[in-house]
């Protein structure tokens, strides 16, 4: 009887530890990262920046550099990369892109940082790239779903993604975990997978197939799967309109620039309300939550970091794992979302950096469980 009670207790602990992760064959490091994110989100939030170590304001491809590090002394805790270059291009170019990307992800892993992966991949059935183009784009979600005319071609694309996922090995032979965020901002119309370009049923079918094929057929076990619409919703029902189900999602998030200063328009109260919808669903479904994209282009507001973003993040108990701002273009003088030396928001960003609530790469301690 005592032995049965102990086994029952252990099973309860295991269920709590699993925290809703959808891949029961996930690598130990991926499981550890998942649990680290859950733990961190209870008291802190990680800061992330897209393409932070690949390029920045006025530079490209420099070793161990980021604009955030130039300002604070630390890289962001979360580094955003993109798999856009792994399809729709000549095989030699794909291989070169994959190798550069592999190095970036592995370097972040060795430093103890975290990688999140976006996927702006080109329309597999027409020209037009990843943006929707009325003159050339084809409604393709219906074509790549199981039974569709381009389904086999889609499977080949996923095989390339899987090959990359299984190539990011650290010096100890372990695979670097990644937060994989496909089909983001699907509630808008700007991408070919957007809401007006496919049915709810077809979108869900493609999402479920994508996860199932990568995880169960191609043996990718170092992905944490993130679901992140844009900010078009106002209720939980609207947020979940194209949700594929808890069995196919590890993390829920939201991309929101519109409520946080885009074009000079601020509606922080609404932005927080939407974030809370995301976070509340995560708690209810036993999932992770994150503010997957935001930012203010050019950061003309010198106190945006503390008076807008930090206040919003702290205004409710939301348990968000990370917040990520968009990229700093290497050539454009105005397209940047994180400060660089002498940018007007640097003093405020340093306050944001020094706030005990925010964590950067230098603050991370064994998120992959290697010292256990």
From TrEMBL:
<dbReference type="Pfam" id="PF02156">
    <property type="entry name" value="Glyco_hydro_26"/>
</dbReference>
<feature type="domain" description="GH26">
    <location>
        <begin position="28"/>
        <end position="362"/>
    </location>
</feature>
<protein>
    <recommendedName>
        <fullName>Mannan endo-1,4-beta-mannosidase</fullName>
        <ecNumber>3.2.1.78</ecNumber>
    </recommendedName>
</protein>
<dbReference type="InterPro" id="IPR016714">
    <property type="entry name" value="MANB/E"/>
</dbReference>
<keyword id="KW-0732">Signal</keyword>
<feature type="active site" description="Proton donor">
    <location>
        <position position="185"/>
    </location>
</feature>
<keyword id="KW-0378">Hydrolase</keyword>
<keyword id="KW-0326">Glycosidase</keyword>
<dbReference type="InterPro" id="IPR000805">
    <property type="entry name" value="Glyco_hydro_26"/>
</dbReference>
<feature type="active site" description="Nucleophile">
    <location>
        <position position="293"/>
    </location>
</feature>
<keyword id="KW-0119">Carbohydrate metabolism</keyword>
<keyword id="KW-0964">Secreted</keyword>
<dbReference type="GO" id="GO:0016787">
    <property type="term" value="F:hydrolase activity"/>
</dbReference>
<dbReference type="InterPro" id="IPR017853">
    <property type="entry name" value="GH"/>
</dbReference>
<comment type="similarity">
    <text>Belongs to the glycosyl hydrolase 26 family.</text>
</comment>
<dbReference type="InterPro" id="IPR022790">
    <property type="entry name" value="GH26_dom"/>
</dbReference>
<feature type="signal peptide">
    <location>
        <begin position="1"/>
        <end position="20"/>
    </location>
</feature>
């Amino acid at each position: 009887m005592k032995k049965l009670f102990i086994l029952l207790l252990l099973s309860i602990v295991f269920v709590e530890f699993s925290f809703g992760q959808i891949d029961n064959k996930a690598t130990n490091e991926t499981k550890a990262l998942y649990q680290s994110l859950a733990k961190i989100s209870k008291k802190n939030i990680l800061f992330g920046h897209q393409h932070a170590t690949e390029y920045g304001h006025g530079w490209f491809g420099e070793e161990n550099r980021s604009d955030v590090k130039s300002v604070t002394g630390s890289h962001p805790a979360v580094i955003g990369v993109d798999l856009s270059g792994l399809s729709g291009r000549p095989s030699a170019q794909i291989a070169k892109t994959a190798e550069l990307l592999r190095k970036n992800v592995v370097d972040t892993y060795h430093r103890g940082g975290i990688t999140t992966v976006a996927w702006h991949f080109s329309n597999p059935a027409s020209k037009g790239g990843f943006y929707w183009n009325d003159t050339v784009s084809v409604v393709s979600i219906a074509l790549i779903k199981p039974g569709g005319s381009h389904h086999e071609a889609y499977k080949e694309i996923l095989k390339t993604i899987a090959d990359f996922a299984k190539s990011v090995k650290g010096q100890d032979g372990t695979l670097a975990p990644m937060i994989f965020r496909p089909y983001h901002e699907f509630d808008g119309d700007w991408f070919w997978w957007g809401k007006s370009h496919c049915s709810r049923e077809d979108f869900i079918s493609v999402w479920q197939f994508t996860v199932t094929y990568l995880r169960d057929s191609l043996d990718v076990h170092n992905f944490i799967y993130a679901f992140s619409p844009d900010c078009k919703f106002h209720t939980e029902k609207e947020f979940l309109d194209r949700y594929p189900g808890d069995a196919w999602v590890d993390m829920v998030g939201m991309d929101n620039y519109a409520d946080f200063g885009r074009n000079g328009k601020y509606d922080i109260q609404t932005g927080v309300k939407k974030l809370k919808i995301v976070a509340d669903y995560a708690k209810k479904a036993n999932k992770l939550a994150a503010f997957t994209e935001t930012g203010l282009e050019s950061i003309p507001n010198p106190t945006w970091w503390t008076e807008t973003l930090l206040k919003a993040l702290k205004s409710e108990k939301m348990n968000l794992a990370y917040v990520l701002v968009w990229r700093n273009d290497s050539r454009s003088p105005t397209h940047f979302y994180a400060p660089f030396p002498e940018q007007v928001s640097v003093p405020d960003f340093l306050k944001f950096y020094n706030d005990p609530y925010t964590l950067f790469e230098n603050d991370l301690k064994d998120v992959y469980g290697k010292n256990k």
